[in-house]
Design a protein that fits this description.
- By secondary structure, this protein is α+β, with helices and mostly antiparallel strands.
- The protein contains eight helices and four strands.
- A four-stranded mixed β-sheet has the order 2-1-3-4, covered by helices on one side.
- Helix 1 packs antiparallel against helix 6 and helix 1 packs across helix 8.
- The protein is globular, with a radius of gyration of 19 Å.
- It starts with 6 loop residues before the first strand and ends in an 8-residue tail after the last helix.
- The chain binds glutathione.
- The site of glutathione (GSH) has 9 residues, from loops.
């Protein structure tokens, strides 16, 4: 497909919203293919465009399909942010402390949310869904087991990471200390939202994270993305 526009494969109620938000921030022309979930899972059609069969996927203007939000965020900024509005300013930019906002810190934060935070959130979420799906006479035991696991292990891990993220936002509106969101914000926003909506994490306990979250979701581009997509509700 070569039509000079990228195509975003968007699935309802998923992290596709963050890619659409980024595209709307960049203000580029794009095509959108909306997929519904099939019994909560990825629509089969998503396998037609990429063997992993997950959403989001971005088909570039020259026909390459990219999976993984973080890679999509990287590609979009590298390709379309010609004025470098959503990039981390280079070292030496007046008024910008690049010693604290370098690529290494960015990699650390991306890895933290995409691996450590993600695995704990997914475990919390899957265990809860599993317990709720149990026959009624087993359910209280399964829910009790979840509570023990949450208390003994998962909640403390998640809390530690959220506190770390909160500290990383000290004195800054966005994660890189920039005036506009960068790749870090586009990627991290999903994990925070997933935690808040799907895992009932009270983000008001982390005031800087809460304020950053509100700043992100009050941006006109975020709201336009919500209008363009076919649903963004992560509570179930
Ligand atoms: N690590 C991937 C995750 C992709 C992924 O698992 N997407 C979810 C939606 S947020 C999905 O397609 N779920 C449906 C399924 O697994 O069947 C990314 O960051 O893009």
């Amino acid at each position: 497909m070569e039509n000079n526009k990228p195509t975003l494969h968007y699935m309802a109620n998923s992290g596709s919203q963050q890619c659409l938000w980024e595209i709307e921030e960049l203000g580029i022309e794009y095509d959108l293919v909306l997929h519904e979930r099939a019994n909560g899972r990825a629509a089969a059609a998503l396998k037609d465009t990429h063997p992993l069969g997950k959403a989001p996927q971005l088909v570039t203007a020259d026909g390459r399909t990219i999976a993984e939000r973080s890679a999509i965020a990287f590609y979009l900024i590298e390709t379309y942010d010609k004025e470098e509005r959503f990039k981390v300013p280079p070292a030496g930019t007046p008024g910008f402390d690049s010693s604290k906002n370098d690529r290494l810190r960015e990699e650390q934060l991306l890895s933290l949310v995409t691996t450590s935070l993600n695995q704990h959130l997914c475990m919390k979420c899957v265990l809860r869904v599993f317990a709720n799906a149990m026959p009624f006479f087993i359910r209280p035991f399964a829910l009790g087991f979840n509570k023990i696991l949450d208390k003994a292990f998962l909640d403390a891990e998640v809390d530690n990471i959220f506190k770390f993220l909160d500290n990383e936002l000290e004195g800054r509106q966005y994660f890189n200390g920039t005036e506009l969101p960068t790749r870090l914000d586009f990627v991290i926003q999903w994990y925070v939202d997933f935690g808040a909506q799907a895992c009932s994490i009270d983000i008001s306990k982390y005031p800087r994270v809460k304020s950053w979250f509100d700043t992100c979701t009050s941006r006109p581009a975020w709201k336009r993305a919500l209008e363009q997509g076919n649903g963004y509700d992560l509570t179930f």
